Amino acid sequence: MRFRYKSILVLCLSIISFDLFASLQPVNLTVEYKKNPLGIEAARPRLGWWIDTDRSDVRQGAYQIQVSPSKQGLLNGKSVLWNSGRRNTDRNISVLYDGPALKSAQKYYWRVRVWNTKGKASNWSEVAGFATGILTQQEWAKASWISNEVLPDSLKVIPGIHGSGDGLGNKLLKRAVNPYFKKSFQLKKSIAQASVFVSGMGQHELYLNGKKVSADFLTPGWTNYEKRCLYNTYDVTNQLQQGENVLGSIVGGGFFYINRERYRKVVSGYGYPMFRLILQIRFTDGTSTRVVTDESWKTMASPVVYSSIYGGEDYDARLEQKGWNQKSFNDASWKNAIVAKGPDGKMAAQIEYPVRVMDTIPVKKISVPEAGKSIYDFGQNASGIVSIKLSGKRGDKIKITPSELLTDKGFITQKSSGENFYFEYTLKGEGVEEWTPKFTYYGFRYAMIEGVKPTSVELLHTRNSAPGAGSFSSSNELFNKIYHLIDWSLRSNIVSVSTDCPHREKLGWLEQAHLMGESVKFNYDVFHLYNKIVDDMIEAQLPDGMMPSIAPEFVQFDGPFRDDPGYGSAAVILPWYLYKWYGDTDVLQKSYPMMKKYVSYLQRKSVSNVITYGLGDWLDIGPNSPGVSQLTPIALTATAFYYQDVMLLAKMARTLGNKEDTKVYDLLAADIKKAFNAKFFDKNTCVYGSGSQTSYSMPLYLGLVEDGADREKVFENLKDSILVHDKRITAGDIGHRFLVQALAQEGASDLLYQMNNRTDVPGYGYQIKNGATALAEHWSGPTADFLSQNHMIFGHLMEWFYSGLAGIRQQEDDSGYRNFIIDPKFQGIDMDWVKSSYQSVNGIISVSWKKSGSKFTMKVTIPANSSAEVFLKVSSVDEVTINGLKFLAAKEIKQVRKQDGKLILTVPSGTYEFECN
Known about the structure:
Blueprint: H1 2-21, E1 24-31, E2 46-53, E3 60-68, H2 71-76, E4 82-83, E5 95-96, E6 107-116, E7 128-131, H3 137-140, E8 145-147, E9 157-162, E10 179-187, E11 191-201, E12 203-208, E13 211-212, E14 228-235, E15 243-252, E16 257-258, E17 266-269, E18 274-283, E19 288-292, E20 298-301, E21 304-308, E22 312-316, E23 335-336, E24 338-340, E25 346-349, E26 355-362, E27 365-370, E28 373-390, E29 397-403, E30 405-406, E31 412-413, E32 422-426, E33 433-435, E34 442-451, E35 456-464, E36 470-474, H4 477-492, H5 510-515, H6 517-523, H7 527-540, H8 565-568, H9 570-582, H10 586-605, H11 634-655, H12 659-680, E37 681-682, E38 687-688, H13 693-702, H14 711-723, H15 735-745, H16 749-756, H17 764-769, H18 797-805, E39 808-810, E40 819-822, E41 833-840, E42 843-852, E43 855-872, E44 880-882, E45 885-886, E46 895-899, E47 902-916
Parallel strand pairs: 14-25, 22-32, 40-43
Antiparallel strand pairs: 1-2, 2-5, 3-4, 3-6, 6-7, 8-18, 8-24, 9-17, 10-15, 10-20, 11-14, 11-18, 12-13, 12-15, 16-17, 18-19, 20-23, 21-22, 26-35, 27-28, 28-33, 28-34, 28-35, 29-32, 29-34, 30-31, 36-41, 37-38, 39-40, 41-42, 42-43, 43-47, 44-45, 44-47, 46-47
Helix pairs in contact: 6-18, 7-9, 9-10, 10-11, 11-12, 11-13, 13-14, 13-15
Pfam families: Bac_rhamnosid (PF05592), Bac_rhamnosid6H (PF17389), Bac_rhamnosid_C (PF17390), Bac_rhamnosid_N (PF08531), Ig_Rha78A_N (PF25788)
Catalytic activity: Hydrolysis of terminal non-reducing alpha-L-rhamnose residues in alpha-L-rhamnosides
Domain Bacterial alpha-L-rhamnosidase N-terminal: 189-358
């Protein structure tokens, strides 16, 4: 008996000990949703962290934050700028800094500790940091815009002109100088810390003492330069030295200056390339100084003799000046920079991740269809540039023409991507020479090389460097290939905007940003990119509330190509997404006036709450050549978006506590729904619109099906509209996402599987079968050789891979993945397993399931400070084991309910393995 009591005592003590010493630690600290960011301009930055623990059912009960301008002062507690004290809340996302005002160009350090709901405290986190940017326009006024030459006002073209610009007379004919800028300066004191704040219009490379300051490419990001000019922030403490230092830069045109040479989608002239910089230096004695751009800087034409975001780049190595950006260089032949009138836009820190080289793709095959013309096949269609090594005589040239496709005779063709784009390099004749273009990019798989034969050629894939957020793999090899097909189109079209294609247009078409938003967010951290797009939309909106179809609006299109509710609705949908995905209410507040103006604009354009204009379901598969909607009434898609906008605006008004607006928009949404059904719904046949796939999918998914109507019959009609086409996709750009989601929502993932698990008809598999390596603009893929072969336009199956097959979905009222759903849709699908993960703002969510005979096993991970509803296709808890235990022995599961033949378990944080028969 004594032994038994001792055993029980030891067991109890071990349980208590385990609970007391189980790990609980804040990790992954972020400021403004980034790790250790530079250039923060927010007066009250948003702080965040994950909670790392080896226990299940862990929620935060409180936190304490400390911030200091000194890392040592933070650790020893002697110079804490802000101490939040213990704050009893479970909030770990978007926690506002609440201390004294932050200073410009200052580095700060911070840490956090948390308590769980049982009162157990963590250790302090590792110290994280952030640095502020230039916080006032007055400070920027001390740094001039400088240029090598000045574009007269009479020759400026703002905004840009669509097409060749042949009617512009003598405007934009000149090749702009892509200038060098340099400044030598002396530092006599020991350096404590230094940051540089730099902008080049349109794009720049920055050097300090002969070395590039960063790996950023095509920086800063693209904006409407009359409204906002972005700058980049870099810590250069370790590159500075006592004595002489040299700052240097090369600046290219980007979207700031596009002349009328070679291929161009747009021509524009805000000005010739110009440059602006502030270097802030703090010394160890507590003093500081600044170096700024002014007329004392020197300038010279660089070897980049031609550069166009649309036409390519030429480089003449004979014009190089060795050591130009290093000390002791003789710049006597250089002229002083011109202080120029810069664009009207305010200076703002770049918030989105910079574009960088993210992959290096080697040549897979070389062919020679004709003497002097070699075709290099990289095996992958991707956005990027070439990198070459070569040797030859001074004055020899190499011309590199990229393309997505080859002709039947094996030559390159730019029919799909914009003809007359190429790279050209002139050798200096000094041993092995290396070159990569600086200020342009293209989407390509092949490159035709003429002239000097290179010893090495690589494709450098460039994209927005946002970290990856998700993963997906399955037992279906075709689906794995489709995943990568779509992913290559995603990564090739995220730069500083979300483009339609990485070659022909390079414009921020807004319908793809919102229709593909869920797909992109599962694969990449798009918080900053999509916030930047929201800023672009706020600046692009017209005074009457109309939202152009592209933002920034570098060019003004005509008619429905400029004004389409399917595109402009991004003004309402994207802020809602950012709130839902990342728990960000700031974006709702800053966007609210824009959203209200856009809805008011649609309200004025409507007739009896129906909108009748737009492009409709662009590129649907009908009897005619692809283009404007053929199968679905334009008014149906336009009015459906109008309803979605108003419905979401009502939700956002409710979230922001605006009761009056909530009531107004709730009533308006109800009126639009009534009008939609009166116009497009046949009560006798339960047919919507023309009976196309899109006609049914949009009302089903958006909740527009009339109250009391036979929803099941509407859904049966949708299925019939698919079966009558032999399960082929006919929906276009607008309708396809709604088709995918409506089928998943209504429990027809098996039909969705059958539609896409094939290669015989236009669709994903058909594209792959015909050689596509990135998703094409049209379902026919490479066989439609006049359309882009790298377009995210139809990538909506990516969303289904995560939300359907893996089953990761947000609850209706969730924000920031605090409460989500895990409900894999595998019934009727011939797949054995799926593995997926998503790095939410709250932590990593993972799901892996497999079927073996009648046994189903699923392993899930739910991050701390969150919970999930897990759906299992069983009728009783007796059929379920959790982590090898009978259900009743699994103490973590607090709630169980049944719905539609499924068991729904409310599961707290932790890792669990469910097994069902």
